[in-house]
Amino acid sequence: MQLTQGYIYIKDMHFWSHHGVMPQERTVGGDYTVTLRIYCPLEKAMASDDVAHTVNYAEVYDTVKTQMSTPSNLLEHAAARIAQALFSRFSTITSISIDLRKTNPPMGACCDGAGVMLSFQR
């Protein structure tokens, strides 16, 4: 059996963060969700059943949480910081897709959110 494609994902991590251009967003904060797809070699972990051979979800979450606690004006900037921090912490990651969404954007519209979907390659 040969693995043809695979990735690790963490879906809809929720954070209360202070991102935004508007002064109130930076003061009061808002609800954000982050979904990640992390591409890295998975064959060794599949065979060994050992977390040391993959990317640890809890460590990924802690990395994202740290970056989400640092305010940014733009979600593009926050997502890029998350990607850079993950690449720095986990040498086996080859690429990352990030969906970062502000669930209640202050734009006078009724919607499920607004955000960015960005993909990065090492």
Can you put this structure into words, describing what you see?
The chain has a 4-stranded antiparallel sheet with strand order 1-2-3-4. It is 32% helix and 30% strand. It is elongated. With 122 residues, the protein is of the alpha+beta class.
Compact overview of the structure:
Helix content is 32%, strand content 30%.
Key features of this structure:
122 residues, alpha+beta, 4 helices
Q: Tell the overall outline.
A: elongated
Percentage beta strand: 25-35%
Strand order of the largest sheet: 1-2-3-4
The overall pLDDT average reads: 94
Low-confidence stretches: none
Element pattern in H and E: EHEHHHEE
Compile the SSE list and pairings.
Blueprint: E1 8-17, H1 23-28, E2 30-39, H2 43-48, H3 57-68, H4 75-89, E3 95-102, E4 114-121
Antiparallel strand pairs: 1-2, 2-3, 3-4
Helix pairs in contact: 3-4
